[in-house]
Amino acid sequence: MEFYEVINNRHIVRDWKDKCVSPEILERVISAGLKAPTHDHARNWEFIVLQNEQDKAIALQFVKAWSATQEEINAIFVMKTTVQKMYAYAMPRQYTMLQNAPYVIIPLFKGSTGIFHASSVNGLNSFASIWCVVENIFLAATAEGLACSMRIPVGEEGKKVTAALGVPIEYMMPCYIGIGYPVEDAAVPEQIDYTAEQKMHFGKW
Ligand SMILES: Cc1cc2nc3c(=O)[nH]c(=O)nc-3n(C[C@H](O)[C@H](O)[C@H](O)COP(=O)(O)O)c2cc1C
Fold it and tell me: DSSP state, 100?
């Protein structure tokens, strides 16, 4: 796939085909993650790979699944704004978009403590680096004809997950990533589209 095609085709997907992802493809996608820029030259990143139902269920036990019907959810998010429409679609799928994905990846970065007391943007370097890794994974998955779902753990959720998975205390998870083949008619929630021209400020703001 041509580079800008990958960029334009990448979307967060939450519904999957019942189709396995080969371990070779998964390795290529994780390898792309490892090519991301890094602040400390050590690439202090690890990846927990979850494939079977039980392992995924252990990692996902702290994800609050919504039991409301789509009608009830639509009534909460009155479906007026782009953001509300996205929430109405995404929130009921927070558990299934991971549990039903052929693979769930938990990326981990070292240096979790410093980011809570960052006095400048520099203190966020380990956090910034892992997000470069995550984006490389998204793009590589897209190039392979796959897609990713992604959830940010809320409150203490991340700490509970890493403890349940035996992760050393100095590592932190930025997100969960589901990887799989998207269903043919995978929903692409409406986005607010901007042109580069609208966002560029030449010389000064
Ligand atoms: C920092 C960040 C946090 C996000 N958190 C979640 C999340 O917790 N659950 C979810 O379903 N999607 C989450 N998303 C995905 C966004 O909903 C999605 O990227 C956005 O709607 C744009 O759609 P696109 O990625 O398909 O272009 C997150 C994305 C980012 C960048």
Answer: T
